[in-house]
Amino acid sequence: MVTVRAPATSANLGSGFDVFGAALSRPADVVTVERADRTTIEVTGVGAQYIPEDPEGNTVGAVVEALDAPAHIHIDKGVRPASGLGSSAASAAGAAVALNRLYDRGYSREELVPIAAEGEAVVSGVAHSDNVAPSILGGFTVTTTDGTHSVDARVPLVVCLPDVAVSTRDARRVVPETASMDDLVETVGNAATLAIGMCRSDPALVGAGMSDPVVTPERARLITGYDAVHDAALAAGATGVTVSGAGPAVVAACRQGNRQRIAAAMLDAFAEADIDARAYQTRIGGGATVLEE
């Protein structure tokens, strides 16, 4: 038996659509696997009632198939589904690391990223790696056609999760198919700024690089109260604010010591829009961790 803690993640970070991702120190899923003749899945925890236990409909089923590693799998969800915090990716990442260890398949963490990404295709229709990469590797990740690169960034964050759901499929439908040259240049410049900020663990540069004129404005329209929450976080001292992944979670980059004030401001702004929400005072953290074997 192997048990793995796989962290929530924030993908895109505004300017890095389908490329950037960051592991969060909290929340996380805990995945336990045990050898079996056929695969069975049990899901408990937050939002478990909305997650299929049929291996064909669960992200970990594709991981089992890719690794040829049938198992009894228990997923204790700490990352709410349809949250914009990589819920399906955390389960897939945890299963990939656990099954690789259980069956001694010998894959490196980097080699497990595309395997776990196959699980993402089950829920979003696309085998993208911007969430599974940081959940497996930790830190800040950049995923391209040439593979995934990671850096151990140390940036404080606040993630505010409203009590509404936005599906990844719906959020992908609103992404514009074209962008102006001006918007493209602005996005590339901001993405470069954010990447440098991550390499330096500089919250000011990370926040400045989160701005995105193409994808974020369209996804923000799916989140009731987003504009007020965005402005409240900046007024409370956040260095940058954007939609986390597909949403509805909103992520703010912070300087050390002001996360509590920013979290309170974001919660108050959602409350004024009659939306219940939860705030995580978190940071960029490590990847999937083996807890027991």
- Number-wise, the strands total 11
**Beta content:** 25-35%
- Main CATH class of the largest domain: Alpha Beta
Q: What is the level-2 CATH architecture name of the largest domain?
A: 2-Layer Sandwich
Order of helices and strands: EEEHEHHHEEEHHHHHEEHEE
Number of domains: 2
- Overall outline: globular
* Main pleated sheet: 7 strands, mixed
Secondary structure: helix percent: 25-40%
CATH topology description of the largest domain? Ribosomal Protein S5, domain 2
> What is the alpha-carbon Rg in Å?
18 Å
Global structural class? alpha+beta
What is the helix tally?
10
User: Mean pLDDT, nearest integer?
Assistant: 94
CA-to-CA gap between the ends? Answer: 6 Å
Unreliable spans are none
What does this structure look like?
- GO terms for molecular function: ATP binding; homoserine kinase activity.
- Its EC number is 2.7.1.39.
- This protein is α+β, with helices and mostly antiparallel strands and 293 residues long.
- The protein folds into 2 domains: 2-151 and 285-292, 2-Layer Sandwich (Ribosomal Protein S5, domain 2), CATH 3.30.230; 156-283, Alpha-Beta Plaits (2-Layer Sandwich), CATH 3.30.70.890.
- It has 10 helices and 11 strands.
- The strands form 2 sheets. Strands 1, 2, 3, 4, 5, 6 and 11 form a 7-stranded mixed beta sheet that branches. Strands 8-9-7-10 form a 4-stranded antiparallel beta sheet.
- Helix 1 links the parallel strand 3 and strand 4 (71-77).
- The longest helix has 20 residues, at 181-200.
- The termini are close together.
